[in-house]
Amino acid sequence: MDMMLLLLTIGIFLGFFVQTITGFAGALIALPFLLFVMPLSDAIGYLSIFYFISTPIYVYKEWKYIDKQLLIKLAPSSFFGLLIGIIVLVYTQPIFLKKALGLFIILYALNNLKEKKEIQLISKMKYFFGFLGGFFSGLFSTGGPLYLIIIRSETSNVKTLRATMFGALGLITLMRIPILAFEGILSVSQFYNAMFVLPFFIVALLLGNKVYLKLNEFILKRIMLGLLFLSGIMLLVKN
């Protein structure tokens, strides 16, 4: 196994193990491994392939818990944000935007670790956050934390939160695949390499689900906030 396939396998395994437990953060965990051996555009392509494979599984298992009305509201703004994000990805790499996103996520996570009442302003700005979630999903595949912020402001039920995260990221994936293909970011060799990684990916989903079933709601919420904080740090310090 060459170094590219090894790090691709490790990144995808760890990323989707965490993704299955919490409903987000798969890309944030996987990207550092992938970016050691490939450019950002290729990493986004691989992540999109595995999100595309996992989406039907997640959505089928969690369908009854997904807040479908919220997803319908977020879909239009997310699509336009995604389209603009991919265009920016193709023609430039504005690292300062990633660092600004990281700083915002850190401040949000720190604020919510204090057990304060959720800020209602975020709920009122859901369409703007939907646009930003789509934009950063297209640009760096890091829109998950923004969707978590939106969905967390709309529900206090952790099962609904996790399931709706699967739905939101699945929706983004379905929008993203054809745009990436049109822009030439996806290639036949990526699909070939993805088939090699697929068994490890499936094991990650199975193990992640087993861990999720053993966690209580309080611990899961704390893990989500902790991952939000960690993802903000990674976005802030990593180029």
Number of structurally distinct domains: 1
Question: How does the helix and strand content classify structurally?
Answer: mainly alpha
Q: Unreliable stretches, pLDDT < 50, 5 or more residues?
A: none
Total helices: the number is 11
The largest pleated sheet is described as: none
- The value of Rg in angstroms is 16 Å
**N/C terminus separation:** 27 Å
Number of strands: 0
* Envelope shape: globular
Mean pLDDT: 82
Question: Approximately how much helix is present in the residues?
Answer: over 70%
Strand content: under 5%
SSE series: HHHHHHHHHHH
Structure, described:
The protein has 239 residues and is an all-alpha fold. It has one domain (3-237). It has eleven helices and no strands. The protein has helices at 3-22, 26-34, 40-62, 68-91, 95-112, 120-124, 126-139, 144-154, 158-182, 188-214, 217-237. Helix 1 packs antiparallel against helix 2 (26-34) and helix 4 packs across helix 7. The radius of gyration is 16 Å and the shape is globular. The mean pLDDT is 82.
